[in-house]
Amino acid sequence: MVEMAGLNKWYGEHHVLRDVALGLARGEKIVLCGPSGSGKSTLIRCINGLEPFHEGDLTVCGTRLDGSAQALAEVRRHAGMVFQSFNLFPHLTVLENLTLGAVYARGEPEARAAERAHGLLARVRLSDQTLKFPGQLSGGQRQRVAIARALMLEPEVMLFDEPTSALDPEMVHEVLDVMEELAAAGQSMIVVTHEMGFARRVADLVVFMDRGEIVEAAPPATFFEAPATERARTFIGQIS
Ligand code: ADP
Ligand code: MG
Protein backbone atom coordinates (compact mmCIF):
# COMPACT_ATOMS: atom_id res chain seq x y z
CA MET A 1 0.00 0.00 0.00
CA VAL A 2 2.85 2.36 0.88
CA GLU A 3 6.49 1.90 -0.01
CA MET A 4 8.93 4.63 0.90
CA ALA A 5 12.72 4.83 0.91
CA GLY A 6 15.29 7.54 1.51
CA LEU A 7 12.69 10.27 1.91
CA ASN A 8 14.20 13.67 2.66
CA LYS A 9 12.51 17.02 2.95
CA TRP A 10 13.60 20.47 4.08
CA TYR A 11 11.71 23.60 5.05
CA GLY A 12 14.39 26.12 4.13
CA GLU A 13 17.34 25.15 6.34
CA HIS A 14 15.23 22.90 8.52
CA HIS A 15 15.73 19.21 7.67
CA VAL A 16 12.23 17.98 8.50
CA LEU A 17 12.37 14.39 7.14
CA ARG A 18 15.68 12.54 7.33
CA ASP A 19 16.11 9.42 5.22
CA VAL A 20 12.71 8.06 6.15
CA ALA A 21 11.90 4.51 5.05
CA LEU A 22 8.54 2.92 5.75
CA GLY A 23 6.36 0.22 4.27
CA LEU A 24 2.70 -0.56 4.82
CA ALA A 25 1.31 -3.89 3.60
CA ARG A 26 -2.33 -4.46 2.65
CA GLY A 27 -4.44 -4.74 5.80
CA GLU A 28 -1.62 -3.53 8.03
CA LYS A 29 -2.07 -0.88 10.74
CA ILE A 30 0.74 1.46 11.69
CA VAL A 31 0.60 3.92 14.59
CA LEU A 32 3.02 6.81 14.14
CA CYS A 33 4.03 8.68 17.28
CA GLY A 34 6.69 11.06 18.48
CA PRO A 35 7.18 14.48 20.08
CA SER A 36 5.52 17.57 18.67
CA GLY A 37 7.53 18.90 15.73
CA SER A 38 9.14 15.55 14.92
CA GLY A 39 7.72 15.48 11.38
CA LYS A 40 4.70 13.16 11.72
CA SER A 41 2.21 15.44 9.96
CA THR A 42 4.73 16.26 7.26
CA LEU A 43 5.34 12.56 6.63
CA ILE A 44 1.68 11.63 6.45
CA ARG A 45 0.96 14.62 4.20
CA CYS A 46 3.74 13.49 1.84
CA ILE A 47 2.04 10.09 1.57
CA ASN A 48 -1.18 11.75 0.45
CA GLY A 49 0.67 14.08 -1.91
CA LEU A 50 -0.27 17.14 0.15
CA GLU A 51 3.41 18.02 0.62
CA PRO A 52 6.21 17.66 -1.91
CA PHE A 53 9.52 16.06 -0.86
CA HIS A 54 13.02 16.66 -2.13
CA GLU A 55 14.66 13.22 -2.19
CA GLY A 56 13.59 9.63 -2.08
CA ASP A 57 11.05 7.24 -3.53
CA LEU A 58 7.43 7.02 -2.50
CA THR A 59 4.86 4.68 -4.04
CA VAL A 60 1.28 4.71 -2.76
CA CYS A 61 -1.22 2.06 -3.89
CA GLY A 62 0.93 1.27 -6.91
CA THR A 63 1.47 4.87 -8.03
CA ARG A 64 4.89 6.43 -7.73
CA LEU A 65 4.68 10.05 -6.59
CA ASP A 66 6.91 11.56 -9.27
CA GLY A 67 5.69 15.15 -8.99
CA SER A 68 3.19 14.80 -11.84
CA ALA A 69 -0.38 15.99 -11.42
CA GLN A 70 -1.57 12.65 -12.73
CA ALA A 71 0.23 10.72 -9.97
CA LEU A 72 -1.17 13.11 -7.36
CA ALA A 73 -4.73 12.64 -8.56
CA GLU A 74 -4.27 8.87 -8.65
CA VAL A 75 -2.88 8.72 -5.11
CA ARG A 76 -5.63 10.92 -3.71
CA ARG A 77 -8.20 8.61 -5.25
CA HIS A 78 -6.84 5.71 -3.21
CA ALA A 79 -5.73 7.34 0.04
CA GLY A 80 -8.33 8.79 2.42
CA MET A 81 -7.22 11.42 4.90
CA VAL A 82 -8.68 12.51 8.23
CA PHE A 83 -7.26 15.59 9.94
CA GLN A 84 -7.25 16.84 13.50
CA SER A 85 -9.60 19.67 12.50
CA PHE A 86 -12.49 18.09 10.71
CA ASN A 87 -12.41 20.22 7.54
CA LEU A 88 -16.10 19.71 6.75
CA PHE A 89 -18.02 22.07 4.50
CA PRO A 90 -20.03 24.15 7.00
CA HIS A 91 -22.76 25.16 4.54
CA LEU A 92 -23.53 21.58 3.48
CA THR A 93 -25.49 18.96 5.38
CA VAL A 94 -23.81 15.83 6.66
CA LEU A 95 -25.20 13.87 3.72
CA GLU A 96 -24.06 16.49 1.20
CA ASN A 97 -20.59 16.56 2.76
CA LEU A 98 -20.34 12.88 1.85
CA THR A 99 -21.91 12.94 -1.59
CA LEU A 100 -20.32 16.13 -2.99
CA GLY A 101 -16.99 14.60 -4.00
CA ALA A 102 -18.51 11.42 -5.37
CA VAL A 103 -21.04 13.28 -7.50
CA TYR A 104 -18.88 16.14 -8.75
CA ALA A 105 -15.40 14.62 -8.85
CA ARG A 106 -16.26 11.02 -9.73
CA GLY A 107 -19.47 11.65 -11.65
CA GLU A 108 -21.37 9.11 -9.59
CA PRO A 109 -25.18 9.29 -9.93
CA GLU A 110 -26.58 11.22 -6.98
CA ALA A 111 -28.92 8.45 -5.86
CA ARG A 112 -26.12 5.88 -5.74
CA ALA A 113 -23.82 8.25 -3.87
CA ALA A 114 -26.59 8.97 -1.36
CA GLU A 115 -27.18 5.25 -0.87
CA ARG A 116 -23.49 4.63 -0.16
CA ALA A 117 -23.41 7.69 2.13
CA HIS A 118 -26.33 6.38 4.17
CA GLY A 119 -24.54 3.04 4.54
CA LEU A 120 -21.35 4.71 5.76
CA LEU A 121 -23.21 7.04 8.11
CA ALA A 122 -24.85 3.99 9.66
CA ARG A 123 -21.41 2.46 10.05
CA VAL A 124 -20.19 5.50 12.03
CA ARG A 125 -23.52 5.56 13.91
CA LEU A 126 -24.81 8.86 12.55
CA SER A 127 -27.92 7.69 10.69
CA ASP A 128 -30.02 10.13 12.71
CA GLN A 129 -27.87 13.17 11.82
CA THR A 130 -27.77 13.09 8.03
CA LEU A 131 -29.65 16.35 7.43
CA LYS A 132 -27.87 18.41 10.08
CA PHE A 133 -25.11 20.91 9.38
CA PRO A 134 -21.62 20.43 10.87
CA GLY A 135 -22.17 23.36 13.24
CA GLN A 136 -25.05 21.48 14.87
CA LEU A 137 -22.87 18.47 15.74
CA SER A 138 -20.46 17.71 18.57
CA GLY A 139 -16.75 17.38 17.82
CA GLY A 140 -16.91 13.60 18.03
CA GLN A 141 -19.83 13.50 15.62
CA ARG A 142 -18.05 15.85 13.22
CA GLN A 143 -14.96 13.68 13.21
CA ARG A 144 -17.08 10.61 12.48
CA VAL A 145 -18.60 12.49 9.53
CA ALA A 146 -15.06 13.25 8.33
CA ILE A 147 -14.19 9.55 8.57
CA ALA A 148 -17.32 8.54 6.66
CA ARG A 149 -16.56 11.17 4.04
CA ALA A 150 -13.05 9.80 3.55
CA LEU A 151 -14.52 6.29 3.25
CA MET A 152 -16.70 7.44 0.34
CA LEU A 153 -13.51 7.11 -1.77
CA GLU A 154 -13.38 3.41 -0.89
CA PRO A 155 -9.75 4.12 -0.02
CA GLU A 156 -7.14 1.41 -0.11
CA VAL A 157 -5.34 3.17 2.70
CA MET A 158 -6.63 5.54 5.36
CA LEU A 159 -4.36 8.20 6.84
CA PHE A 160 -5.29 9.78 10.18
CA ASP A 161 -3.42 12.78 11.62
CA GLU A 162 -4.21 13.08 15.33
CA PRO A 163 -7.93 12.50 14.76
CA THR A 164 -8.86 12.78 18.43
CA SER A 165 -6.52 15.44 19.76
CA ALA A 166 -8.98 18.32 19.19
CA LEU A 167 -11.80 16.49 20.97
CA ASP A 168 -13.11 16.76 24.48
CA PRO A 169 -12.02 13.66 26.41
CA GLU A 170 -15.50 12.16 26.59
CA MET A 171 -15.72 12.11 22.79
CA VAL A 172 -12.40 10.46 22.10
CA HIS A 173 -13.64 6.92 22.53
CA GLU A 174 -16.54 7.22 20.05
CA VAL A 175 -14.05 8.14 17.32
CA LEU A 176 -11.51 5.52 18.35
CA ASP A 177 -14.27 2.87 18.40
CA VAL A 178 -15.14 3.64 14.78
CA MET A 179 -11.46 3.46 13.81
CA GLU A 180 -11.08 0.14 15.60
CA GLU A 181 -14.03 -1.28 13.72
CA LEU A 182 -12.47 -0.15 10.47
CA ALA A 183 -9.23 -1.80 11.46
CA ALA A 184 -11.02 -5.02 12.38
CA ALA A 185 -12.67 -4.97 8.94
CA GLY A 186 -9.19 -5.08 7.38
CA GLN A 187 -8.66 -1.43 6.43
CA SER A 188 -5.00 -0.57 5.85
CA MET A 189 -4.15 2.50 7.89
CA ILE A 190 -1.49 4.82 9.21
CA VAL A 191 -2.60 6.69 12.33
CA VAL A 192 -0.73 9.53 13.98
CA THR A 193 -1.90 9.37 17.59
CA HIS A 194 -0.72 9.36 21.16
CA GLU A 195 -3.62 7.15 22.26
CA MET A 196 -1.61 4.29 23.66
CA GLY A 197 -4.61 2.06 24.31
CA PHE A 198 -5.55 2.33 20.66
CA ALA A 199 -1.97 1.60 19.62
CA ARG A 200 -1.83 -1.51 21.81
CA ARG A 201 -5.15 -2.86 20.59
CA VAL A 202 -4.88 -2.03 16.90
CA ALA A 203 -1.32 -1.43 15.70
CA ASP A 204 0.72 -4.12 14.01
CA LEU A 205 3.65 -1.75 14.24
CA VAL A 206 4.38 1.37 16.28
CA VAL A 207 6.73 3.77 14.52
CA PHE A 208 8.44 6.36 16.70
CA MET A 209 9.80 9.54 15.10
CA ASP A 210 12.03 12.14 16.61
CA ARG A 211 13.60 15.16 14.87
CA GLY A 212 12.61 14.02 11.41
CA GLU A 213 13.85 10.45 11.60
CA ILE A 214 12.37 7.08 12.43
CA VAL A 215 14.08 6.08 15.64
CA GLU A 216 12.20 2.86 16.39
CA ALA A 217 9.64 0.61 14.72
CA ALA A 218 8.33 -2.32 16.76
CA PRO A 219 5.13 -4.17 17.64
CA PRO A 220 3.26 -2.32 20.41
CA ALA A 221 4.12 -4.79 23.17
CA THR A 222 7.83 -4.43 22.44
CA PHE A 223 7.70 -0.69 21.90
CA PHE A 224 5.84 0.12 25.12
CA GLU A 225 7.35 -2.57 27.36
CA ALA A 226 10.92 -2.59 26.11
CA PRO A 227 11.76 0.47 24.02
CA ALA A 228 15.24 0.19 22.55
CA THR A 229 16.27 3.84 22.82
CA GLU A 230 16.44 6.47 25.52
CA ARG A 231 14.50 8.87 23.28
CA ALA A 232 11.56 6.46 23.05
CA ARG A 233 11.68 5.75 26.80
CA THR A 234 11.50 9.46 27.56
CA PHE A 235 8.60 9.92 25.13
CA ILE A 236 6.60 7.00 26.55
CA GLY A 237 7.18 8.37 30.03
CA GLN A 238 5.74 11.72 28.96
CA ILE A 239 2.55 10.42 27.33
CA SER A 240 1.61 7.74 29.86
P1 ADP B 1 4.54 16.96 14.04
O1 ADP B 1 3.31 16.62 13.24
O2 ADP B 1 5.33 15.74 14.43
O3 ADP B 1 4.23 17.79 15.24
P2 ADP B 1 5.25 18.57 11.76
O4 ADP B 1 5.42 17.63 10.61
O5 ADP B 1 4.00 19.35 11.82
O6 ADP B 1 5.52 17.81 13.12
O7 ADP B 1 6.42 19.63 11.74
C1 ADP B 1 7.78 19.23 11.73
C2 ADP B 1 8.66 20.45 11.75
O8 ADP B 1 8.51 21.18 10.53
C3 ADP B 1 8.34 21.43 12.87
O9 ADP B 1 9.56 21.95 13.35
C4 ADP B 1 7.52 22.49 12.19
O10 ADP B 1 7.68 23.73 12.84
C5 ADP B 1 8.12 22.52 10.80
N1 ADP B 1 7.12 22.88 9.77
C6 ADP B 1 5.93 22.25 9.56
N2 ADP B 1 5.28 22.80 8.53
C7 ADP B 1 6.05 23.82 8.08
C8 ADP B 1 5.94 24.77 7.02
N3 ADP B 1 4.88 24.79 6.21
N4 ADP B 1 6.96 25.65 6.86
C9 ADP B 1 8.04 25.62 7.66
N5 ADP B 1 8.22 24.75 8.68
C10 ADP B 1 7.25 23.86 8.88
MG1 MG C 1 1.30 17.03 13.59
UniProtKB/TrEMBL annotation:
CDD domains reported in the protein's UniProt record: ABC_HisP_GlnQ (cd03262)
Membrane topology: Peripheral membrane protein
Alphabetized Gene3D superfamilies for the sequence: P-loop containing nucleotide triphosphate hydrolases (3.40.50.300)
Compartment annotation: Cell membrane
Domain of life of the native organism: Bacteria
Annotated ABC transporter domain residues: 2-236
Gene Ontology terms: cellular component: plasma membrane
Family annotation (PROSITE patterns): ABC_TRANSPORTER_1, ABC_TRANSPORTER_2
One Pfam family it belongs to: ABC_tran
GO molecular function per UniProt: ABC-type amino acid transporter activity; ATP binding; ATP hydrolysis activity
InterPro entries in UniProt: AAA+_ATPase, ABC_ATPase_HisP-typ, ABC_transporter-like_ATP-bd, ABC_transporter-like_CS, MetN_ABC_transporter-like, P-loop_NTPase
The entry's keywords: Amino-acid transport, ATP-binding, Cell membrane, Membrane, Nucleotide-binding, Transport
Family affiliation: Belongs to the ABC transporter superfamily.
Protein's recorded name: Amino acid ABC transporter ATP-binding protein
